Amino acid sequence: MLELGGDHTQTAVRDRIIEPGRRLIAEYDEGLSNRQVWNNAALLASAALLGNQHAFDQAVDGRSSLQSHLSVGLLADGTWYEGENYHQFALRGLWYGVTLCESAGRPIESGLRERFHRAFAAPVLTALPAFTMPSRKDSQYAVSLRHWRMAELIELGLARTEAPVLTGALARCYEKNHERRETGRARSTADVERNGPSALLTRADLGWRALLHALPELPPLASVVPRSALMEEQGLAIFRRPDDIYVALDYGQSGGGHGHPDRLNLLLSQGATRWLDDLGTGSYVDPSLHWYRSTLAHNAPLIDGHSQPARDGVLLAHEEREDMGWIVAELRLPDADVRLERTVVVATDYVLDELRWIAPRLLRVELPWHLDAVADGVRFTPAALDGGDGLEDGFSFARESRAARVVANNPVRFSATGDGEQLHATLVSDCDGIRFSACAPGQPASEMRPFYMIGADAPRCVLRSVVSCSSEVQDARFAEDGVTVELRNGERHVHRRDEEGWHVELFAGAAKSSIDLAGWRKAEDERQHPLPATRNPTVIRRRRMSTTWMTDLSKSERAKLLTFELGEEHYRRSEDRWTDAGSPRATIAVGAGDAELVVYAHVEAGERHFARAGAPNAFDNEHADTMAAGVQLYVRMPDGSGAWMLIPEPARELVRVRNIAGWGALLPPRARWRERDTGYEMRIELPIVESDAEYPVDIDLIVNETMSHRERRRGQLVLSGGQGEFVYLRGDRHDPTRLIPLVLVS
Q: What band does 658 get if pLDDT is binned at 50, 70 and 90?
C-alpha cells in the first residue's frame, strides 16, 4: 500500500506511474500527426516532473518535437496543415507545450512564438458568416465557434496578445442573444476536444486550466466586422462583402492524410445559407467517408473521370482594391504539361468564376456545382454518370443522373432559393460538352442532395460563370475577350484579362472609372514536392535487365543493382516493437533497363498472410489488403506519378495490383512472386520512357508484415526509413516528400 503523502508516495508515483507512462508514450512517435502534439505535451510534463532534462530537451528539439510541429505542422500563416478541425485539437496541445517550456525557462524563439500567436486568430479569420468553421478536409460539418472550447482558446490567445480580432471573436462568443444549452463542463474537468452546438456562454463555462492562464479582467469587448483574408501557406483565400457574403477559393495545401483531393474548390455563403459548400467528412467507419473524400463531392475539377492526385495547388496572383478582388491559382498534374487554372473575381454584387485548362492531349475535365438549383430551359434526359471506379472517385454514390448537351458559347442560367435568400448564376463553356444533374449524399448524416456537373473533352477549354446573391445584377454577357455585367441601377462593368492582370471598366451614366488588379506571385519550382537538399539523387545506369529472381542473380549482376537492406531503422510499428515482431527484414534492389524500372523485394517479415481479392474490412474504411502482408510501391517521374498495392495470390505466381488513389495515372507495373523458406520474393517491372538523357525517378516502397492470427498488420518496413515512427491506421496513404530521388542514365 502507498502511504498518503511524504517522500515514499512521491517516489512511488514517479517510479511506478510517471516514468513508465513517459517511456510508453515516447515509443509512439506519430510524426507530424496532431496526436503527436499531445504526446509531446505529455512528454514535456512528465520530464519536468521527473527532472529529466534530456527527455525534456528531446520533446522540445528532437524528432517529431514541439519545435518541429511549430515550424512544419503549424504553417507560417498560423494554420495547422490538416485543416480547421484538427487546428483546434493541435493548438490546445501546442499551448500546453509552449507554456511548459516557458515555465521551465526555455521560451520558444520569437519567430515561432509569433506564428503560435497567429494560430489563435486563424479560425476567426476563416470563419463563415454564421460563426462556424468551414468544413474543409476531414472536418465535421458546421462546427460552431460559439462553444466553450473555442472561447477557451481565444481567452488563452488574448492573454498573450491583445489583438482586436480576438476581442471581437470573444464578443461573439459571449453574445447574450443565444439559447442557453448544457455544455457538459459540470460533468468533467478534462480538456475534451468535443464539438457541440452554438450556445450562450459566459466565463463560468470555461475550464479551470484556461481561467488560470486567462486575463484576470477582460478588456472591453466589441464585435469586429470580419475582413477578407489570405492564408497563403494554407492556400485559402477569403473575400468578404456586405450582406454577409463569403467567397473562398481553397487552392493550396493538400493537408496530408486528412486532406481531400479538392484543389481549386470554390465556396460561397450568404449569412447562414451555404450555397457552394464543403461538406467536410462524416464518420471514419462509414462507407460514405469515400464520398466525402472524393473530388466529385466538392466544387473542384475532376480530371479524366478521377479524383485529383494528391498535389498542392499554387497561388499565381491575389489582390483586393476598391471593393474588387481577385485570385488566380493553378493545379498542375504530374504530367507537367497539363495545367488547370481557376480565376475568381469578387465584386460587391457578384462573383465571376473562370476555370481553364491546357493539355497536350484530349483531356476530360468536369466541374461539379453542389447547388440545389433550377436550370432554365435545359432539357435533361436519363443518362449514366460514368467515371472512375475507385472507392474515392465518388461516382458510385451518385443517383438519379440525367444529362444534357452543352453547346459552346451558349449561356445557361440557374436560380436557387434557400433560407429566404436567392441566388442567380449564368454559366457558359467555350467548347461543346455535357452537363449532368444528379443526387449524392449531402452534409454528413443527411439526406441526398442534388448537384450539377459540367464537363468537356478537349485539350483546352474555359468554363465561365457569373454568380450573384444580389438582386442588383440584371444581366451577364460573355465574349471571347471578356465578360460584361449589367446592374439594375444602370451601371455596367466590363471585365477583361491580359498578361498584366485583371481590368475592370466601370460605367455609371456618363462617368467612367477603372480598377486594375495584379498581385502576381513569383513562379515556383514546378516540382511539387521538393526533397531536402541533402538528399542528392542516386545514379542508376540503364542496362539489359535479367528476367530471373534477385536471389538467383550472380554476384556480379547483383552488384550492378542499387540495394537496400531494411531492418530496425526502417521499421514503423503498428503495435509491436521490431524485436518483439521477430526482427523483420527485407532486401530491396532497384535496376533499370531501356524501357523498364525493375524493383526486387526479398521479404523475411511475419507470415505469408495475404488478403484475398475483395476481402472486407469490418473495422474501418481502409482497404483490407493494407492490413495483411504485401508491398506498397510509390513512384514519381517526369511523365507522371503512380502508386500501387501489390498482393501475392496464394498457390500462383500472380501478383494482384491495385491502384492507390490520389497518386496519378501511370501505367501499373507487372509483378510475380514466389515463396521462400523464410518469407517470399517479388519481382516488379514498371514501364518507363526510353531516353538517352538523364531521367529522374523518385521511389519509395513499404512492406506490410503481419501474422495469420492477427486482424491488422503488425508493422511496416519503409524504404525511406521508419525508426521510431508509429503507423496507426494510415492505410495506404503516404507522404510524397519521402520518396527517394534516383536518376537513370544511359
A: very high
